[in-house]
Amino acid sequence: MSRTLDIRIEGPVARVFLNRPEVRNAFNDGVIAELTEAFAGLPRDPALRAIVLGGHGKAFCAGADLNWMRAMAGYGWDDNRADAERLAAMLWAGYRCELPVVGRIHGDCYAGGVGLAAICDVLVAADGVQFCLSEARLGLLPATIGPYVVRAMGEQAARRWFVTAERFDAAEARRIGFVHELAAAEAIDDVVDGIVAALVGNGPAAVRACKRLVQDLAGREITPELRADTARRIADVRAGDEGREGVQAFLGKREPAWRAP
Fold first, then answer.
1. What is the maximal distance between C-alpha atoms in the chain?
2. Cα distances (angstroms) measured from residue 170 to each of 108, 120, 123, 180, 246
3. How far is the C-alpha of 176 from the C-alpha of 122, rounded, in Å?
4. What average pLDDT does this structure show over 193-211?
5. CATH 1.10.12 region(s) of the chain?
6. Which of 55, 80, 109, 151 could be bridged to 113 by S-S, CB 3.0 to 4.6 A?
């Protein structure tokens, strides 16, 4: 049984919760390894349609574990790079996870926790959540999480929050587009479940393909090659079993097979 994650399968949904409440779900080697495994392994289950990522206790994730930081303080360059590459591999596994990931953010979300939030496809934050990219206060920088945070909040917002290391609240995170939905603390699960219900109602292969499409299109110039690639993708889907079933169900005014009781 996992010591750092609580993974529960509820029908088509995997609920993956950081489970170190005594340290506000701070990262260590175990958390990173188990998250990497979860992001890579859960999509292999064809019955799963979505992942909800959250945390037990008073905080979503407070960044790096203090004991882990003490150990890193004695690392040389090679050890520091190897350690950072493990974190980078975990973030990439989450970002490219074939299943959509819905982030359920409560309490504090600091440093590496902001990076973990940034790899989610849909982000719901409770009122009162405090975000902070605090690395500069320690003479560090949010390098490994940086690519995902900049994509999620935009370059202009990242310019401020990276260099000032100020805290910003859930309302500000919503304003800059980092967070999709705000919820009262007691209602966050209802909001998350509503989003999950929408995901599960869609074609399972289509959802995975849509997630990949956004990642592959973001920031790219619209070239003849890109136009040809998008034409190929829609042709593949239209000619596939799920696409045919979806269109036939729509035309026949019936539920598609993936929503059949």
1. 66
2. 10, 16, 11, 10, 37
3. 14
4. 97
5. 202-259
6. 109
Query: Cα–Cα distance between 9 and 15 in angstroms, integer?
Result: 6
Looking at residue 1, its pLDDT comes to 43
Q: What is the DSSP letter of 201?
A: T
| Ranges in the chain annotated CATH 3.90.226.10 | 5-199
Q: Do 104 and 54 touch, CB atoms closer than 8 A?
A: yes
- Provide the 10 A C-beta neighbour count for residue 155: 8
The answer, as to whether pTM is greater than 0.90, is yes
Query: pLDDT at position 208, please?
Result: 96
User: CB 244: neighbour CB atoms within 10 A?
Assistant: 12
Neighbours of 60 (CB within 10 A): 29
Name residue 214's amino acid: V
CATH code assigned to 5-199: 3.90.226.10
Q: What is the predicted pLDDT for the residue at 68? A: 78
Do residues 11 and 49 make contact, with C-beta atoms less than 8 angstroms apart?
A: no
**Torsion angle, alpha carbons of 117, 120, 124, 130, to 10:** 10
Class of the CATH-defined domain 202-259: mainly alpha
- 3-class DSSP state of 180: coil
Two tokens, residue 17:
């919760």
What is the Cα gyration radius of the chain?
A: 19
- Distances 94 to 79, 109, 250, 254 between C-alpha atoms, Å: 23, 17, 33, 35
DSSP at 130: E
